[in-house]
Write a structure and sequence with these properties.
Strand content of chain A: under 5%
Shape of chain B: globular
Strand order of the largest sheet of chain A: 1-2
Distance between the termini of chain A: 22 Å
Distance between the termini of chain B: 50 Å
CATH topology of chain A: ABC transporter involved in vitamin B12 uptake, BtuC
Strand content of chain B: 25-35%
Number of helices of chain B: 18
Radius of gyration of chain A: 20 Å
CATH architecture of chain A: Orthogonal Bundle
Oligomer: heterodimer
Order of helices and strands of chain A: HHHHHHHEEHHHHHHH
Radius of gyration of chain B: 25 Å
CATH topology of the largest domain in chain B: Rossmann fold
CATH superfamily of the largest domain in chain B: P-loop containing nucleotide triphosphate hydrolases
Number of strands of chain A: 2
CATH architecture of the largest domain in chain B: 3-Layer(aba) Sandwich
Largest sheet of chain B: 6 strands, mixed
């Protein structure tokens, strides 16, 4: 009784968001233990680091997704922004380190620009986010296919510059470089959301757009900035993916739409905006990738994985909904 | 009360009714007795339990304990339908119409006229709706219109007609007039009197005392989830004292001293939307009332001054300098603040903390390179909360958990932190309980005494008459009259607002 009471008090002391973030991390630990039972090698350090590295790709896309979900929006354009970024990096650098810096700037700029276009569509033109970003996804798919000639162009076979490949495969102090990058991104985003005017405005707009406008906040600029950041992180994920795999391919962004949204939701953000934190999405991404790995370790077929995936998301949403009613 | 009443058979009785939501006891041991041929007003602060009691009586909620009797028999109220079958109909405060359906469909929901095949048609519906409207003297609502296209007042009228059309023995009206204009209120009271004269019972709630004293035969005061007394006559100050449990000397604080002519805001030929042309000067320390019927350009005037709506023409001078606010942000920079009608949806961010809400308008000023000076923000918020004597658990509690008066303080505190000198109060007391109104009046007059300029629109002419130094009456987008404080009363304001209609 007393133990349960204490735990309840500790949990009650956290905000609903904080509690959900905790649940997501708890679920991840449970999944690792389950994986260890299925296959003892599952919880070895190398495997854990591999899972975390794979989770980083989801986590990067989920960063942008978190930003727009915080204001009650959504970014459905991530698959082809990511894909376009991967191809653009490879083709514009021609696989040479000498062009790497310019190619990186070009690619990240492209992602941010597409995101800004999304933001302008949503705030200035008043197009619903679902429609705007879905249309943008189609446009980016068309542009990518057309400009690359369906990946038949001369430069399309280029590899990512060795520098970028090194970033994806290297390690520092026994930790893979992508994880260091992820840590930096986590720190940066937490700072942005907690300590800046931009972050405060983001939560305010997600809570009530009209009231934020009437309080004198820069609503349009903030929304455009948030979509821009989403495009930027999708492009960054594309860069890391092409660095990791060496070559770009068509359709490589597809899995990241569902996974990024799922990660944000598992991480406890309200899909209606105003509530949530990137640390939650990080937990969500790790949880999701661990789940996939466990299912793979159990030799589950792809269709089974998809079903379990969907069921888990639904169950979580039901649990969170119940909690909101209680609170 | 006395023997004569004790012998009269009550048409409605609620005995020691309780209802809790989670940890909150909304109604605890409340009792109410109403008689046939009686208009019975329930008064009390927001949260005193009136609306919950009405929902319990009307079968919308089920009581945790206690008994409800209709016409002397215990009513088994599992659903609103059960209440309806026993002749009890409710007009709830939240509108219950289906927005995407027509007026006629809503009016005749679940009793649509059908032909021999059991089918209905929009023509039949329309005809039936016209019959209902004619019976209650409604002429200017099109039964074919979609509810979502209608103004709030018309929707409320439809709700009321829907309940009336069932010939209720007991009619419950939860704040029916807060969405209505003077004309529709007069119509409603006519219908209420007709029901009373036919021996029916009408229970209603309102925060407008002149309505209560105009129509109620009996007044029951609620405080903290239960009834604290039933009266056949009660004056406003007594009522406020009973409702708040503390002695209130007078609802309206004394008018601040007359201001010296020093223009804080000068408006010339401002136009846009329904506002055709408005010119006036607002002085420091002045409460300038804006009166008139809704829809005559008030909203546009306020939104344009606050940069929340584009101007078509006109000049705005702030301390002599011309300004062209194109966004609320620019208006706030020029020291203009808007206190909107609905602080919960347009003013405050309810789930966010007191501190975050207080500092929302100064984030830019209190930051360096976009990075918040968080310690300073905390200090500023705490100092402002202390200055305004905000009652709250602490500065990190969500604003939504505060009482109405304290929420209003947070909103004013936000503008004071932003050094605003011109305050635009837009119908801030609509639907607000008397105790909170009293606090708002106190805050407003304190601002004026502090030398700030206040433009104050209220749909309640009584308030303007008591608080404003001058009242400008808007009619058809123009200033139709300017009334001075001396000899000012609500009737004169209303007369000036209606002048055109009164004299054809």
């Amino acid at each position: 009784m007393s133990g349960g009471g204490t735990r309840r008090r500790v949990l009650a002391g956290l905000s609903p968001t904080g509690r959900r973030v905790l649940y997501a991390y708890g679920a991840t630990v449970l999944l690792f233990l389950l994986g260890g039972l299925v296959r003892p090698g599952f919880i070895q350090a190398t495997n854990v680091l591999t899972i975390l590295t794979v989770a980083m790709f989801v986590g990067l896309v989920a960063a942008g997704q978190s930003f727009v979900i915080l204001i009650g929006g959504i970014d459905l354009s991530v698959p082809w922004v990511l894909n376009a970024a991967a191809i653009l990096l490879a083709t514009s650098s021609g696989g040479e380190n000498a062009h790497a810096a310019a190619a990186l700037a070009l690619t990240l700029g492209m992602g941010a620009l597409v995101g800004v276009a999304n933001g302008i569509g949503v705030t200035v033109l008043g197009v619903p986010a679902v429609v705007m970003t879905l249309a943008m996804n189609g446009i980016m798919e068309g542009l990518t296919l057309g400009l690359s000639g369906g990946m038949t162009c001369g430069a399309c076979a280029s590899y990512a510059p060795p520098l970028v490949q090194g970033l994806a495969h290297g390690s520092l102090l026994g930790v893979p470089a992508p994880l260091w990058l992820w840590l930096a991104v986590i720190g940066l985003i937490s700072f942005l959301l907690q300590a800046t005017v931009f972050g405060r405005a983001t939560y305010a707009i997600g809570t009530n757009l009209r009231a934020s406008e009437l309080a004198g906040l820069r609503v349009r600029a903030t929304v455009i900035g948030l979509y821009g950041l989403s495009g930027l992180t999708a492009a960054l994920a594309g860069i890391m993916l092409v660095g990791f795999g060496g070559q770009a391919s068509l359709g490589m962004g597809e899995p990241y739409l569902f996974q990024s949204i799922a990660a944000v939701v598992i991480g406890g953000a309200s899909i209606l905006g105003g509530r949530g934190h990137y640390l939650g999405a990080v937990a969500g991404a790790i949880c999701l990738v661990t789940l996939i790995s466990v299912l793979l370790a159990m030799n589950m077929a792809e269709y089974g994985r998809s079903i379990i995936y969907g069921v888990i998301i639904l169950v979580l949403l039901l649990l969170y909904g119940r909690e909101a009613r209680d609170g | 009360m006395n023997d004569a009443e004790g012998r009269r058979a009550a048409s409605l009785e609620a005995v020691s009714v309780s209802k809790g939501f989670g940890g909150v006891q909304a109604v605890s041991g409340a009792s109410l007795t109403a008689f046939p041929g009686e208009v019975h007003a329930l008064v009390g602060e927001n949260g005193a339990g009136k609306s919950t009691l009405i929902k319990l009586i009307g079968g919308r909620l089920r009581a945790d304990s206690g008994i409800i009797r209709y016409q002397g028999a215990a009513a088994a109220l599992k659903t609103p339908d059960a209440a309806h079958r026993q002749g009890c109909w409710t007009v709830f405060q939240e509108l219950t119409l289906l927005p995407a359906m027509s007026v006629a469909e809503n009016l005749l929901l679940r009793r649509e006229p059908r032909d021999v095949f059991g089918l209905t048609s929009s023509r039949r519906l329309r005809q039936a709706a016209e019959v209902v409207f004619a019976r209650f003297g409604i002429r200017d609502i099109d039964p074919g219109a979609l509810v979502e296209d209608l103004p709030l007042a018309d929707r409320q009228v439809i709700e009321i007609v829907r309940a009336l059309s069932h010939d209720p023995d007991i009619l419950l009206l939860d704040e029916p007039t807060s969405a209505l204009m003077a004309r529709e209120t007069a119509w409603l009271f006519g219908e209420v009197r007709r029901l009373r004269d036919a021996g029916r019972t009408v229970i209603f709630t309102s925060h407008r005392w002149h309505e209560i004293s105009a129509i109620a035969d009996r007044i029951t005061v609620f405080r903290g989830g239960r009834d604290v007394g039933s009266f056949t006559t009660l004056d406003e100050d007594e009522a406020v004292t009973l409702m708040t449990g503390q002695r209130v000397e007078a609802l309206y604080p004394p008018r601040p001293p007359a201001p010296a002519p020093a223009a804080a805001l000068a408006v010339a030929d401002l136009a846009g939307g329904r506002l055709a042309a408005a010119s006036f000067t607002l002085n420091r320390g002045e409460i300038l009332g804006i009166g008139g019927l809704a829809g005559h350009g008030h909203r546009e005037l306020f939104l344009m001054l606050f940069g929340a709506m584009p101007r078509k023409a006109g000049q705005i001078r702030r301390d002599g300098q011309e300004i062209r606010p194109r966004s609320p942000r620019q208006a706030i920079r020029a020291g203009i603040a808007l206190v909107p009608e609905d602080r919960k949806t347009e003013g405050l961010l309810l789930p966010l903390s007191v501190g975050d809400n207080l500092t929302l308008a100064v984030l830019g000023r209190e930051s360096r390179l976009g990075i918040l000076r968080r310690r300073r923000l905390r200090t500023l918020a705490a100092a402002m909360a202390a200055r305004l004597k905000v009652r709250m658990p602490d500065i990190t509690s969500p604003v939504g958990a505060l009482s109405g008066g304290n929420q209003q303080k947070i909103l004013l505190g936000r503008w004071l932190l932003a050094d605003c000198a011109v305050f635009l109060f837009y119908d801030v007391t609509r639907g607000v309980d008397v105790a909170t109104k009293h606090e708002i009046y106190e805050l407003m007059t304190a601002l004026a005494r502090d030398g700030r300029a206040i433009l104050y629109y209220s749909s309640d002419a009584e308030e303007l008459a008591h608080l404003a130094h001058r009242v400008l009456v808007l009619r058809e987008g123009r200033i139709a009259a300017e009334l001075a404080a001396s000899g000012l009363n609500a009737e004169r304001i209303v007369a000036a607002a209606m002048h055109e209609q009164a004299a054809p």
